[in-house]
Amino acid sequence: MTAVRELKLTPIQNGTVIDHIGNGLALEVLRILGIERIQQSSTVSIAIHVPSQKIGWKDIIKVENMELSARKLNAIALVAPTATISIIREQRVREKRPVALPDRIDGVLHCPNPGCITNQREPVESEFEVVRRKPIVLRCAYCGRLVDDFLAQLA
Predict the structure, then answer these.
(1) What is the reported pTM?
(2) Which of 40, 46, 60, 84 is least surrounded, with the fewest CB atoms within 10 Å of its CB?
(3) Residues 132-141 pLDDT 10s
(4) What is the CATH number of the domain that holds 55?
């Protein structure tokens, strides 16, 4: 007899659910969210290595009383391009959409080139252009350096 696995996560009143995060990437997404700055009164639920019909195995994060900025959504799109975002209000899904990688990403990554103007204590925000989407490759708009390792470069 096979055991039935049931996933139980506490419902949230208001906040954000990030579903279909690639297996094992939940902790990186929490880093993007700035988990240490989340209100103490807000519940955070994390499920890691959950079966998924869509992507095989996935992670899920629920954060109460938080809606994501465009920058955080862009960073999540880099790290977890299969993720979907659900906005919860009054315990109901009010909006659900996949993350989308824009053509340009500003202020989310550090350029790995130490000689880039964005690393020279100048008041210049990083800008990257999407060169390729699968696998994702970005190019620094200032020095032209190609970047494909996003975890090490997250701002």
Answers:
(1) 0.84
(2) 40
(3) 998 999 999 9
(4) 3.30.70.140
